[in-house]
Amino acid sequence: MASIIPKCFSFIIVIINMMLFSLISSTLSQSPTYMAFVVNATALPPEDSFDYIVVGGGTAGCPLAATLSVNHRVLLLERGGVPHSNPTIMRQEGFIPTLRQVDPFHSAAQAFTSEEGVPNARGRILGGSSAINAGFYSRADDEFYDRSGINWDPLLLERSYQWVEKSIVFEPQLQSWQTALRDGLLEIGVQPYNGFTLKHSLGTKIGGSTFNSSGHRHSAADLLNLARETNIKIAVYASVERILFAASDSPESKESAIGVVIRDSAGYFHHALLREKGEVILSAGAIGSPHLLLLSGIGPRSYLSSWGIPVVNHSPFVGEFLYDNPRNGISFVSPKLLEHSLIQVVGITDSGAYLEASSNVLPFPSPVHSIFMRSSSSPLYFSVASIMEKTIGPLSAGSLRLASTEIRVNPNVRFNYFSNPVDLQRCVNGTRKVGELLRSQAMSSYRFLGWSGAEFRFMGLPLPANQTSDEEMSDFCRRTVSTIWHYHGGCVVGRVVDPNLKVIGVDSLRVIDGSVFSISPGTNPQATVLMLGRHMGLKILIERMQKANT
């Protein structure tokens, strides 16, 4: 192995790590502006009132709260802590370690496993999943806006994207592995080449990134720097136990949200209540929002009663139509040292799949100590390259069910991967494209020379030898299915919320996050969810001003 990776590379890696540590220390010593209005939930008064209570300081919740704070008093509640002081979270090299360093109640990533046995994760930190993801940023496809059922304002939609992009989106600079992916995609016909663009376009493109040129992460939390400081309070380590309701004055609804119950990290309870014309807004994500609705008494009547939960509103589809885009692919050891890279280049095919890739730098396991070997003062490194396909849609739907009446316990989730045969065929199409990519000239330098010729050194299951067989490729898809962390649904438009994302049958309650989506937007939902928070915040402000003037 030492012949593959000369010791000079190890020295270079050590120097780079020293430089990065210096940069990280400098960056982490500077607290972001929003920390001026962040408090630990233990410091909240027993009771307080606000115009808007946003539950979930994640990808949608942060831009939403920042926007509403312009004219109104806002409380943003986040069950986790803050990201800026954690070097693992704030560096792109920390993506995989963050997903692995988990515990039941405190880690930034909250692990859960679907009933199919597929490991997954939820964001549990200010910034939500945008603070622990791979950073890829690409706008939704045009078809998404028509199919979403959301009442979009086209002018606000564009302005909202721009507002986000000005603050936290960067153009990545491609290095060797991402360049090889780009060249390989074009070689196998994933055309045209669209260069760097934030728009969803058929062909091969370079998307945006929320990591800057130094590899420093930006997230939805950074959008809180744009909030009006005197109008917003952010409480961290704040677990919302349930939504509070009272009789409604509206003839269309029996109940109206009036606030929430918060439990802090010391186990004490606090009440946040709404002022007149205020709203509780759930932005807790595709797992958290339907979970909190069920525990608060909004869901199927008989199901809630079986758990002893008082029924506030019979809403049979809460937790239903839950989706997760399947990810399948391969990984192999590179014969040359690669840089660490997350998703930067994407191939948008016309056969129902998106192709992406990443590369990782890992240390060799320490050899067994021997009196005949001199131990090295610095470790040796090797690189692993991965190519993956994401199935669009998907059409296969699952559901969420309670595992406990304790909000901190993950609910039971089933996604029913590939239960719809269209999804399975799209996976077959995508994995065949991965096979074509491996056979391209652009990938030839990533093969090892052996007795039988040049070959890839795969880690994990390789693609089937007979890639023309639908049966073998389908079996590969089923056996290697994993998540790309783009799950959505559970509070979908037209069934749980209306086109303005108001919960049907209840006043003063909305859901604004990816749980309202019945289809994943484009190659990656991050851009769309960030935009959604800003867009809906602006719509609420305009709607309220119009009512005040009538």
Automatic annotation (TrEMBL):
InterPro entries: FAD/NAD-bd_sf, GMC_Oxidoreductase-Related, GMC_OxRdtase, GMC_OxRdtase_N, GMC_OxRtase_C. Pfam families: GMC_oxred_C (PF05199), GMC_oxred_N (PF00732). Disulfide bonds join 427-477. Gene3D superfamilies: 3.30.410.40, FAD/NAD(P)-binding domain (3.50.50.60). Keywords: Disulfide bond, FAD, Flavoprotein, Membrane, Signal, Transmembrane, Transmembrane helix. Residues 123-146, 285-299 form the Glucose-methanol-choline oxidoreductase N-terminal domain. Belongs to the GMC oxidoreductase family. This is Glucose-methanol-choline oxidoreductase N-terminal domain-containing protein. It comes from Lactuca saligna. The lineage of its organism: Eukaryota, Viridiplantae, Streptophyta, Embryophyta, Tracheophyta.
